[in-house]
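Exercise 7. Given the encoded structure of a 352-residue chain, write a plausible sequence.
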C-alpha cells in the first residue's frame, strides 16, 4: 500500500478547465470517497491518477514518487469500472490472470495468485465460468479480484456499484469495505451516492466545478458542512436564510422568519443587519403544533420506516424534519406548526 499526494493539479479538455488546482492527501491504507454532482471533476481526478488523461500542471505522488509523466501501466494501479469491463470470451480465472500476463508474471505464480484472488472474493468455485454465466454481483467480484491480484499501490474504483440493484449494492458496500480494510490497500472511490460515501469511506472529498469544496470524515461532512453549497449537496438537512437583528439591551439574535424559533445568538464576526445561512439536520428539527394561522403549514408526510419525513412550507421553499411515527401523527398535513431546534445543533455560516 502507498500514500497518495496531489498538489495544485490542473486539467483541461480543450478550452474547458476540468480540474482547478486540486490539493489532496491520502494516507496509506485510507479509503477516500470522491463525491459531487455530474461534471464536477471527480472522474477526471480519478482518471488523472490512473494516467488515462494528462494534467498540464501539478503533481501526483504515489508513495513519494511523482508519477504524472508515467504511463498507466508504470503506476501499478488497480482499476475497477462501473460496468465491470470483463472480457466476455474469457473465464473468470482468465480475466483475473490478464493483468499478470501483461506484466510477464511466471505461469505457475499466476495460477496460485488467481486462485487466492478468486477465493478472497468468494468465487473460487466459479473460476471456469464466463461473465454471461455470472450474476451482476459475481461479475463485480471478478473485476475486483482482477484489480487486486496485481497487488496495486492504489485501488481506484469508478462508481463500481452503480449497475447493481439496491439490495446487492448494500451487500457489496459491506464486502468491499471489509476487504479493503483486511488487505490494507489505499483506495479512491468515485460515487454519486452520498449515503454510499458516508457508509464506506474514512474520508470524503466533495468536489464542485473542478475544485475541492470540502474534505473531512463522514461525521465532519454530515454535521459540520463548511459552506451552504456543501450543506445542500449532502442533502441531509436544511439550509435556511437568516439575518442578525439587534434586540433589547444591545443583544442580537438571528431572525429566520415567521414559524422558526431556534433561539440563535449572534455568531462571532457578524454585525446587526448582516445576512447569514443556518444549517440544521432534519432529525434535529422539532415541529410543534400552533393555533390559528400562525407558523408553517405542513404540506407532506413521507414514511421511511423508523422515521417520517415531514415537510412544511418555509418562505420560498420547504423545511424538512425527520420525526418518529408517533410525533408525525401530531402534525398532520394541513396543520400549522412552529419549527424549533437547539442552538447547539445548528451551524451558522456566511450567507451565499
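Solution.
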Amino acid at each position: 500500500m502507498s500514500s497518495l499526494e496531489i498538489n495544485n493539479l490542473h486539467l483541461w479538455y480543450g478550452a474547458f478547465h476540468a480540474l482547478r488546482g486540486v490539493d489532496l492527501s491520502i494516507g496509506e491504507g485510507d479509503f477516500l470517497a470522491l463525491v459531487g454532482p455530474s461534471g464536477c471533476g471527480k472522474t477526471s481526478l480519478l482518471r488523472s491518477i490512473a494516467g488515462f488523461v494528462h494534467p498540464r500542471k501539478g503533481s501526483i505522488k504515489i508513495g513519494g514518487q511523482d508519477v504524472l509523466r508515467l504511463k498507466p501501466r508504470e503506476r501499478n494501479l488497480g482499476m475497477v469500472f462501473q460496468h465491470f469491463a470483463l472480457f466476455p470470451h474469457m473465464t473468470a480465472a482468465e480475466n483475473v490472470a490478464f493483468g499478470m500476463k501483461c506484466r510477464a508474471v511466471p505461469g505457475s505464480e499466476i495460477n496460485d495468485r488467481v486462485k487466492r484472488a478468486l477465493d478472497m472474493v468468494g468465487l473460487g468455485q466459479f473460476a471456469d465460468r464466463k461473465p454471461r454465466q455470472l450474476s451482476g454481483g459475481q461479475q463485480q467480484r471478478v473485476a475486483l479480484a482482477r484489480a487486486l491480484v496485481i497487488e496495486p499501490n492504489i485501488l481506484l474504483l469508478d462508481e463500481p456499484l452503480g449497475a447493481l440493484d439496491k439490495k446487492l449494492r448494500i451487500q457489496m458496500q459491506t464486502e468491499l469495505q471489509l476487504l479493503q480494510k483486511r488487505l490494507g490497500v489505499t483506495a479512491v472511490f468515485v460515487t454519486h451516492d452520498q449515503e454510499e460515501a458516508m457508509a464506506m469511506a474514512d474520508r470524503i472529498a466533495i468536489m464542485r466545478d473542478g475544485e475541492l469544496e470540502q474534505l473531512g470524515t463522514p461525521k465532519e461532512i454530515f454535521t459540520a458542512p463548511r459552506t451552504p453549497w456543501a450543506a445542500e449537496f449532502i442533502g441531509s438537512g436544511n439550509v435556511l436564510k437568516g439575518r442578525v437583528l439587534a434586540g433589547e439591551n444591545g443583544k442580537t439574535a438571528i431572525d429566520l422568519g415567521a414559524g422558526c424559533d431556534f433561539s440563535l445568538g449572534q455568531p462571532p464576526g457578524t454585525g446587526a443587519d448582516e445576512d447569514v445561512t443556518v444549517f440544521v439536520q432534519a432529525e434535529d428539527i422539532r415541529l410543534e403544533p400552533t393555533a390559528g394561522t400562525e407558523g408553517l403549514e405542513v404540506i407532506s408526510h413521507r414514511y421511511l420506516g423508523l422515521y417520517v419525513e415531514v415537510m412544511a412550507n418555509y418562505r420560498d421553499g420547504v423545511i424538512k424534519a425527520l420525526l418518529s411515527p408517533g410525533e408525525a401523527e401530531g402534525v398532520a398535513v394541513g396543520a400549522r406548526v412552529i419549527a424549533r431546534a437547539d442552538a447547539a445543533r445548528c451551524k451558522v455560516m456566511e450567507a451565499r
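Remark. The mean pLDDT is 89. Students should compare their own answers with the one above.
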